């Protein structure tokens, strides 16, 4: 469904009120997943700047994790942010636009490394709390994006939940979200493993579980396509 923002939303305050609403996330938060395509030869410079100066950004709002793509995409960074509401996000973005140190020390230098930027906003599915438990050493992450048939989210969700308890016996997700802004009818899963080899092994073992296998089989009836990225956390990522 498409809509047009009318002229009454032209002021910043009106725009903030338009986006002010109770989130459907299980914890009442909204999440922003940002993906940056970095010019390949400038990726080391971009990461050095980010690891050194990103405290200027996290002073304004909470970052859940920051990764580089290793499999499924190259020369990308992916970062996940948490906000109390869309109004909160708007106020953070405004504060950042007025933060001279952030703009001069980081943005002005890192901007030339970026080829493209995209973002989606997400809400946690009510039956999947955010799991931010860390381990002693950095892990390998799987980010799974599923595009669903329009209007079929509830049917897809019902099928997945039929086998969810079985899937959790094999590993625990970081989070499970659905899109609010960005490509419609999408869900995102984030998982963490000791290595990419373990990720494959765990997924293969889970697929031998009849209850989970049947749930996935039925859920695919409502799925157009899915895509998996392998991610590695950078030094400053809270999730490792």
Automatic annotation (TrEMBL):
Which Pfam families does the UniProt record give? Answer: NIPSNAP (PF07978)
Which parts of the sequence belong to the NIPSNAP domain? 31-129, 144-238
Mind telling me which Gene3D superfamilies this protein's record contains?
A: 3.30.70.100
The domain of life is: Eukaryota
**May I have one GO cellular component term?**
mitochondrion
What biological processes does GO assign it? mitophagy
The family note in this entry says: Belongs to the NipSnap family.
| UniProt name for this protein | NIPSNAP domain-containing protein
Which species is this record about? Answer: Amphimedon queenslandica (Sponge)
What gene name is given for the protein in this entry?
100632234
